[in-house]
Amino acid sequence: MHGFEKNGIIDWGALITSQPSLARVAASLRELAEVREIAAGRVLARVGDPVNWIWSVISGELRLVRRSRTGAEVILQRARGGFIAEASLSSKTYHCDLMAAEGGVVLRFPVKPFRAMLDQNADFRDAWIAELAQEVRKLRSQSERLSLHGAAERIIHYLESEGSDGAIELSQSRKAWAAELGLSHESLYRTLSRLQSEGQLDIDGPRIAFRKSRKGNARNQGKKSG
Amino acid sequence: MHGFEKNGIIDWGALITSQPSLARVAASLRELAEVREIAAGRVLARVGDPVNWIWSVISGELRLVRRSRTGAEVILQRARGGFIAEASLSSKTYHCDLMAAEGGVVLRFPVKPFRAMLDQNADFRDAWIAELAQEVRKLRSQSERLSLHGAAERIIHYLESEGSDGAIELSQSRKAWAAELGLSHESLYRTLSRLQSEGQLDIDGPRIAFRKSRKGNARNQGKKSG
DNA sequence: CGTACTTTTGAATCGCATCAAATCTGGTGG
DNA sequence: CCACCAGATTTGATGCGATTCAAAAGTACG
Lengths: 226, 226
Hints:
The structure is a homodimer of 226-residue chains.
Chain A: E1 5-6, E2 9-10, H1 12-18, H2 20-23, H3 26-29, E3 34-38, E4 43-45, E5 53-57, E6 61-67, E7 73-79, E8 82-84, E9 97-102, E10 104-110, H4 111-120, H5 122-146, H6 151-162, E11 167-169, H7 174-180, H8 185-197, E12 201-204, E13 207-210
Antiparallel strand pairs in A: 1-2, 3-10, 4-9, 5-8, 5-10, 6-7, 6-9, 11-13, 12-13
Helix pairs in contact in A: 4-5, 5-6, 7-8
The structure holds a DNA duplex (30 and 30 nucleotides).
């Protein structure tokens, strides 16, 4: 599935292409990275453990979790690509458990040289700051989106905030998109086709865009008025 | 209302106390900051404008917005305290509008010295990185929380992720908390009193905590993983 | 005392989740 | 090429829980 690693050799070109978040920092980091294959359920760190590694997901799913006293698992972060637990860089020990919810391949970087490079390498530092800031922007907009109550509103918001010029090319299945939108996949399917039949959206395979309606309100296009 | 500023003189002690996000960076920034009183509706920057200032909210509400073609306003970020549009630091121009949704007081820092200080002052840089990483952590956990469907589940998740040892001292009104949880305030009130009467929570004014129950409070929420 | 806001409870409605099932898709191997 | 399978996609029916509208009681503040 991932296909970036074979016999311990990483295809950095493909990896970087698929992981925008790593694209700019990778050059300085390659010599530090270790590739690890992780089985589902594997625990990488527990509360209180010293922070020895910075983890980044290539395939599969890592989770930062805490277990409530009722036994329910509380997910604090879910990573299916890119770094997880960035804040651990500034911490001596973990405040949550880090585990693999799904088997896959991860990269790990030793923290000490990672921190040292942040100190000494201006490019790396700028890239890391830009990366974090970009992540903040994306997450803020996701939080705003999840605070919206209607399925249609979330879809529109997604197009406006993550798309370019009101259009996006989905790189994931719609089912996965539904999860990201905090909707059941049925709701997403239904709402998409409703928006299409109402003339608000153009849907063509993985491409979803606002319909370039001539003017005014697209709301009238689905039903006759008067 | 805010009380941090009088006749142009800032009470930095009070401000820093009230704004954890500024606490560690403030020392290096004081000489750069400018205090501005902003009226509701005031536009601070538009799409395409060059980034000249980094803004931080003391009181009132700033928003990063985009206007959809149907005229609806899409909120990308909403700040009622702390920095807004951190990603603009790495950008030449704005990709959204920045406006005041509610009048108040803001700080603004000129970008050039801000960037220069990031380059030259190691403490400031570490603080800024830690600040961003902390914000990422908080937002990730908020996104996970907003993806939960039940009101009770969100409350539990909040206690687990933002509280210490399963207890929190609310610093805001419950109505404001409801908004943060993505719930109507009625839902929050009802669910809180239900959880209390069911013996799951102890609620005492602004303090909300898991009840130290003996055991057998076997209500399971959330079941599936992987 | 009056105003504005929060907190609280009640009742009706609506949208989404859920369960169920059929179709479609891509990939695998005989 | 076909049979087969796992997954995604799509449509239908139903119930629950959150939103919404409404109104009252509590609280802070000048």
